[in-house]
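Sample log: SEC14-like protein 1.
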Amino acid sequence: MVQKYQSPVRVYKHPFELVMAAYERRFPTCHLIPIFVASDVVSEETSEDGSITKVERRCALDVDAPRLLKRIAGVDYVYFTQRNTLNRKERTLHIESHNETFSNRVIIHETCCYSVHPENEDWTCFEQTASLDIKSFFGFESTVEKIAMKQYAGSIKKGKEIIEYYLKELEDEGITHMPRWLPSSQTTAPVRPTSLCTSPCVFLALPVSPVVPTPILDADYIKRYLGDLTPLQESCLIRLRKWLQETHKGKIPKDEHILRFLRARDFNMDKAREILCQSLTWRKQHQVDYLLETWTSPQVLQDFYTGGWHHHDRDGRPLYILRLGHMDTKGLVRALGEESLLRHVLSINEEGLRRCEENTKVFGRPISCWTCLVDLEGLNMRHLWRPGVKALLRIIEVVEANYPETLGRLLILRAPRVFPVLWTLVSPFIDENTRKKFLIYAGNDYQGPGGLVDYIDKEIIPDFLGGECMCEVPEGGLIPKSMYRTPEELESEDVRLWTETIYQSSSIFKGAPHEILIEIIDASSVITWDFDVCKGDVVFNIYHSKRAPQPARKDPLGAHGITSPVGNNVQLIDKSWTLGQDYSMVESPLTCKEGESVQGSHITRWPGFYILQWKFVNMAACAATNMPRVDDVLATLQVSSHKCKVMYYTEVLGSADFRCVLLLRRTNHCLIVADHTE
């Protein structure tokens, strides 16, 4: 397995030339890098005007590995080749390195770049990427990988400290400025050559992008707004963020949100990406991003839902108080239904995310989760009403899937004897990492040492818990039965709540694409689309026909003769039609991979009937040779392996309306970028 690393942008608040002067002092050896024992220049060349210097060096590393492993490998040092290009005119230094030793068994590649900060020419940026691929190593592949990752992570963390050390040394010597390079016709001072050796870090190199992204995800920003992350955790965040930017066309969640999903899966990128994509699809389908603006709590919730926000805890986390023992769960379910309760809980979580952002700015440190205080006084068997417990379990399931790592601490107070019964029911649905954050107090134990005052300032402890602070959380009580709704009314409203979405979903099978028909009257109209590939890989096509297709039909699944198990798979193009005669392709086919979010438009040239088609594609088979593999042949016998799913929305706009939409999107994009940089 190939291990990859990508650094954040590390910023030195010093000019490029001064950073290069500090960089020179690291060589030929550096006492701050004990493993870097030697370096020899293999070749060096400078351009005629002196602006570009290229140096190739051979560097020796004394890797901190077990003596037995070194004896088995038969080496004392690991040798690297480095090729460095200093462009004084462009003010950049590019460094590439790869291993010579065991290059047939282990492939290490690293790319680094020093460049001028895009927003401040007196600052310098540094980026690096690296990759490690261990093909074989005398049966010690796992050990070598762990050694390499450990030493590389340590060298990354120390890299900036070394440059800062030599910058301080220059300052102590009175050197605080270095002149910029000028063409020989503009200066009489000779250009001082710069040593270009760098210490190859024990493990790596990934291709690093020399172009600094905007806005910059730099190390200082990460520490200020996201917290202390290890180099490899930073790398996971940056790589996942970059993948989202490439596949979701700029519609990506905030860095704090991405980081929560990574933490929920212990920074396993593949697992985090899977659950994050599922959550983004869910948010998009149900318009969760607009919930705070569109959702108004019914009066019943305002009067009888015994929960609300109350200041913050000692760590600056927003504090949510829930008096569960005073809540009439049966009455809420009977008066509102599961969906209204779920939507209300989602609005609480969305408000929690907003408050975390606010508190991060107020307290000057990263705050990514909140504290919840649950008072169980009054909890009894009435709260174990089966439909109420069922609604609670469903709410927990949705929240766990879409708001991971948002609960920093859960304080459960005055737990009665019936609590173990409730805990037995709900605990299997709660993530293990979340359960570790639970603190449970029986009776008045919360008032003693190690109790509530350890987590909440005495001044804001609610009055009903013996404090002096007035709490605006409703006291609850029994909901009058006159407010109960019939099961038919609740079912109808529940369906309406979660079908209020502009998006539609469809399953796609091999031999059974999904097609939708759009009739165009005005030839200058614009067809727009927005779809997510939720499962599998698809090809998106747009066709035009002068005649209307036959009524929509559900086609059997190709040669399998199996009827589609879902009712939302429709074919419009008749099998007797010939491409180029009965209908024509108006856009090049677009291949879309699982997890991608695609937006686009097509300006129609002719009136008539346009067909948008999503078709199954096997990416692995496309990349292979023309000869089918045994696995591919066997896979064709399994219908389930040829299923894709898309969620889509289409709209037809007039050309004038389309221009207005484009202008609005550009304005919103500028505002988003400005907000991020602030």
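Observation: The first helix runs from residue 16 to 24.
Observation: The radius of gyration is 31 Å.
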